[in-house]
Design brief:
The strands form six sheets. An eight-stranded mixed beta sheet has the order 7-11-12-19-16-15-13-14. The chain folds into three domains: 2-97, Threonyl-tRNA Synthetase, Chain A, domain 2, CATH 3.30.980; 112-155 and 193-387, Bira Bifunctional Protein, Domain 2 (BirA Bifunctional Protein, domain 2, 2-Layer Sandwich); 394-489, 3-Layer(aba) Sandwich (Rossmann fold), CATH 3.40.50. It is globular and about 80 Å long. The two termini are 47 Å apart. The chain is α+β, with helices and mostly antiparallel strands and 494 residues long. It has helices at 2-10, 38-51, 84-100, 102-108, 128-148, 161-167, 169-173, 194-202, 253-271, 290-306, 348-351, 377-387, 411-423, 436-445, 456-461, 477-489; strands at residues 16-23, 26-32, 55-66, 71-81, 112-113, 125-126, 151-152, 158-160, 179-182, 185-189, 213-222, 238-248, 274-280, 311-314, 324-330, 336-345, 356-357, 363-364, 367-376, 401-405, 428-430, 450-454, 463-468, 471-476. It contains 16 helices and 24 strands. It binds zinc ion. Zinc ion (ZN) is lined by residues 192, 194, 245, 370.
């Protein structure tokens, strides 16, 4: 299986085999050689097609890390088939799956792309359409924050590592923090926001009246994942979270978490994603006192029972600093993704010496909750692109209405409609180049929800001819406008 591939690689460059093996249903070989490029892979594939009696398909290639050599290696994943027919069947299925792949959809719908060689594989660039989607998601979370009383802050992307040393992240996650040396000072790109949010709490003397103290931030954090683990938007280095922190005392716990969970359930309903809850309990190496742990776990259990949601207990899988609830969502392809998480933390306020003055005038340590609803926007965009197979619901669609004047004569009328829609914050475009069939097809392949053709008939009747996801109907203009506004406001799915 491996020999032909190794021969093929060596035909083009000097490459020593470091490791070979099977992972799930595909084979891999790690080579000690220079970085591989797409050209190399194409050449290797061609060589295999012409010289091997087996039928090879190279699936992917990436940099990997060899612990034994302590250096980067190049990994090639591949499959081998006995017959040409088997190979072709596989390639066909791969092509179908690709059409649902968020990397393919991201490129096709002009949402994002990744410049692997120039910028880096975990660092996506979101185009205009991607920025609109993320902005709509932020608006959704801002409404939730409003209801829950979370207010936004803005904190920098880098910090002296002093902060991470205080919080304990440095010691635990140093190899995942991007470090920058500046004169005599070491800085790091922030891997999480919590310590900075706690410093905002700490900037004033706080009393029990200030609790629960609720902070939110749409912040990009940076974490160094092994580059072999990076995958489109679902595994990245720059992670923009809808991050939330709450500083509180035990007495607020039940009410606060219950309200958060209710909102999380509602958010996922909007996308038609099923949720499953996991409660992770006290691990062996826990810190803090047993009484607090028991109280917190009991409270979390009660909340899940009272809300009547499905949940599973993950014994001893909590973080060392507190129990947590992870929320897995199931997409249209029955795949589970862990997105939202709610973590209790008995430790960090103590590490950063965060206190409040209680009713009895004594200084006390609060506890804190970390939570995110969508998790990271990058990952979430990747997941919903696949979940909806690119056909985003109206409220999320970067362009909601395409207006197609039948000929130049009707451009004025098209412009008028465009302006009326834009005034109502509906995202519209006018397509006037090419035949009408071509333009309809163009809008359809970009999954634009509403496609409106304007011609003589439409102007005379005052009705619009509308194509919505393949079905054709006619509707009065004013009626259409109020219908679409309503649909967007309610964030309806199709
Ligand atoms: Zn946090």
């Amino acid at each position: 299986m491996y020999e032909d591939l190794i021969k093929a690689v060596n035909n083009f460059l000097e490459a020593n085999v470091v490791e070979k093996g099977k992972k799930e249903d595909k084979y891999f070989v790690d080579f000690d050689c220079r970085v591989l490029y797409k050209d190399d892979i194409e050449k290797i594939q061609k060589y295999l097609d012409e010289n091997s009696k087996f039928h090879y398909v190279i699936l992917s290639f990436s940099s990997s890390f060899s612990k034994s050599l302590n250096k980067a290696t190049q990994r090639i994943y591949f499959k081998v088939f006995e017959t040409k027919e088997e190979k072709e069947k596989f390639l066909k299925e791969l092509e179908e799956a690709k059409k649902r792949d968020h990397r393919y959809l991201g490129e096709k719908l002009d949402i994002f792309h990744i410049e692997e060689e120039i910028i880096g594989s975990g660092l996506p660039l979101f185009h205009f359409n991607g920025a609109i989607i993320i902005d709509e998601l932020k608006k959704l979370i801002k409404e939730v924050n409003n209801r829950l009383g979370y207010r936004e802050v803005i904190t920098p992307h880098i910090s002296k590592t002093f902060l991470w040393k205080l919080s304990g992240h440095y010691e635990k996650y140093k190899d995942r923090i991007f470090l920058i040396q500046e004169d005599d000072e070491e800085f790091g790109l922030k891997p999480m926001n919590c310590p900075m949010h706690l410093m905002i709490f700490k900037s004033r003397v706080r009393s029990y009246r200030d609790l629960p103290f609720r902070i939110a931030e749409f912040a990009t954090v940076y974490r160094r994942e092994q580059s072999g683990e990076l995958h489109g938007l679902t595994r990245v280095w720059s992670i923009t979270q809808d991050d939330h922190h709450c500083v509180l005392s035990m007495e607020h716990l039940k009410d606060e978490i219950k309200r958060i969970i209710n909102e999380i359930i509602n958010v996922y309903k909007i996308f038609g994603l099923d949720v499953k809850f996991n409660l992770s309990t006290r691990p062996e190496n826990f810190i803090g006192n047993l009484e607090d742990w028991e109280f917190a776990e009991k409270t979390l259990r009660e909340i899940l029972e009272e809300l009547n949601v499905k949940y599973e207990i993950k014994e001893k899988e909590g973080a060392f600093y507190g129990p947590k609830i992870d929320i897995d969502v199931k997409d249209a392809f029955n795949r589970y993704w862990q997105l939202a998480t709610i973590q209790l933390d008995f430790n960090m306020p103590r590490r950063l010496d965060i206190t409040y003055v209680d009713k009895d005038n004594k200084e006390k340590y609060p506890i804190m909750i970390h939570f995110a609803i969508l998790g990271s926007f990058e990952r979430f965009v990747g997941i919903i692109l696949e979940h909806f197979a690119g056909k985003l619901p109206l409220w999320l669609a970067p362009i909601q209405v395409s207006i197609l004047p039948l000929s130049e004569k009707y451009e004025e009328e098209a412009k008028k409609l465009f302006e009326e829609l834009t005034k109502e914050n509906i995202r519209a475009e006018i397509l006037s180049e090419g035949t009408i069939e071509y333009r309809v097809r163009d809008a359809e392949t970009r999954y634009i929800p509403y496609i409106i053709v304007i011609g003589k008939k439409e102007i005379e009747s005052g009705n619009l001819t509308i194509r919505y996801r393949g079905t054709l109907f006619s509707m009065n203009k004013e009626e259409f406008k109020s219908k679409i506004i309503e649909k967007i406001r309610n964030r309806e799915r199709d």
